[in-house]
């Protein structure tokens, strides 16, 4: 893999990290838009399998054969740059975006609404045409469920370690599920601010519990999602599209603290401008990614032709 592409993956990872800190936006959505989603899911599945084989084979003296086989199938050239970018992206977002959400909630949600709305076209286009009736129904059902979920009033929970563990296990699913925001789920149960504070204050005790919950959630969920993408790809993408559409409710700029939706009011023009900026940013990302893929496919075709001609 070329150096330029590795650097691109670092920036993609930074964007995913930023998205994970923002309520209403899923890191999985950014991964999907930037073209790394399926490789990340496949790699995560192989890592989970490698850990499982290591835990079962090594104590029995069976060696590293199955574990090594799984690890060799991980897209390390994609995963490592993404991880390098994600951590600073998350830390920067925790420092800068949270005050913006507090001080300028309507304008910030307007920008995010444009980002996510434009992102919906990615999984929809990946399903392909024509759409079958079952896929349309799945999209509608997922949209309704996501709309209802994002309308739930914010709860307030004491950050007990067990609660943090369970919340992290559920929220991390959003890292691999486009349309479902892990930060929004934390906000719903009242753990968003404590988690952001823990990140900013380097509360390693809280973060260790949270990280444990993430590992548990990934181990339980990733293999299922990998299987769904392999065996029921169109239906899974249809559900993802519906989840993205339904989650737009959380990003409507004009809403109360109880998440009641209001008609457009103050700051309409600035919010509209930020909305259009969000649409333009994602559209540019999608166009750039598709051009990169076409260029890579063309280079591969030319390389294959030259190899064949040389023979």
Textual characterization of the structure:
It holds the Pfam family VCA0040-like. It comes from Micromonospora radicis. This is DUF368 domain-containing protein. The chain contains 15 helices and no strands. The protein is mostly helical and 311 residues long. It has one domain. Helix 1 (3-20) runs antiparallel to helix 2. The longest helix is centred in the C-terminal third of the chain and has 43 residues, at 268-310. It starts with a helix and ends with a helix.
SSE arrangement:
Layout: H1 3-20, H2 27-33, H3 37-57, H4 65-72, H5 76-103, H6 105-119, H7 121-127, H8 133-149, H9 161-171, H10 173-176, H11 182-188, H12 192-201, H13 204-231, H14 233-247, H15 268-310
Helix pairs in contact: 1-2, 1-5, 3-4, 3-13, 5-6, 5-12, 6-15, 7-14, 8-14, 9-11, 9-13, 13-14
Tell me the radius of gyration. Answer: 21 Å
* Biggest pleated-sheet summary: none
Looking at the structure, what is the overall shape?
Answer: globular
How much is the average pLDDT?
A: 81
Return the domain count: 1
The number of helices is 15
Order of helices and strands: HHHHHHHHHHHHHHH
Helical fraction? over 70%
Quote the distance from N terminus to C terminus: 25 Å
Low-pLDDT parts are none
Give the oligomer, counting copies of the same chain as homo and different chains as hetero: single chain
* DSSP strand content: under 5%
Number of separate strands: 0
């Amino acid at each position: 893999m070329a150096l330029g592409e590795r650097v691109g993956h670092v920036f993609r990872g930074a964007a995913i990290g930023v998205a994970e800190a923002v309520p209403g936006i899923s890191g999985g959505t950014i991964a999907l838009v930037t073209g790394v989603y399926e490789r990340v899911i496949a790699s995560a599945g192989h890592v989970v399998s490698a850990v499982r084989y290591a835990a079962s084979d090594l104590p029995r003296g069976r060696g590293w054969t199955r574990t090594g086989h799984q690890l060799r199938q991980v897209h390390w050239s994609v995963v490592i740059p993404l991880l390098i970018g994600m951590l600073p992206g998350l830390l920067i977002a925790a420092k800068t975006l949270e005050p913006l959400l507090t001080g300028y909630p309507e304008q910030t949600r307007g920008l995010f609404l444009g980002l996510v709305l434009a992102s919906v076209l990615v999984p929809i286009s990946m399903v392909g045409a024509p759409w079958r009736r079952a896929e349309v129904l799945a999209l509608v059902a997922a949209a309704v469920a996501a709309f209802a979920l994002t309308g739930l009033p914010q709860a307030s929970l004491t950050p007990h370690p067990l609660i943090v563990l369970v919340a992290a296990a559920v929220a991390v699913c959003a890292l691999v599920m486009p349309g479902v925001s892990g930060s929004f789920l934390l906000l719903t149960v009242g753990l968003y601010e404590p988690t952001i504070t823990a990140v900013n204050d380097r509360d390693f005790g809280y973060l260790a519990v949270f990280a444990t919950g993430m590992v548990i959630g990934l181990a339980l969920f990733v293999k299922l999602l990998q299987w769904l993408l392999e065996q029921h790809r169109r239906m899974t993408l249809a559900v993802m599209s519906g989840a993205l559409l339904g989650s737009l409710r959380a990003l409507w700029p004009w809403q109360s603290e109880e998440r009641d939706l209001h008609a457009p009011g103050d700051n309409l023009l600035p919010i509209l401008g930020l909305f259009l900026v969000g649409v333009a940013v994602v559209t540019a990302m999608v166009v750039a990614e598709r051009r990169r893929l076409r260029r890579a496919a063309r280079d591969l075709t030319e390389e294959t032709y030259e190899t064949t001609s040389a023979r």
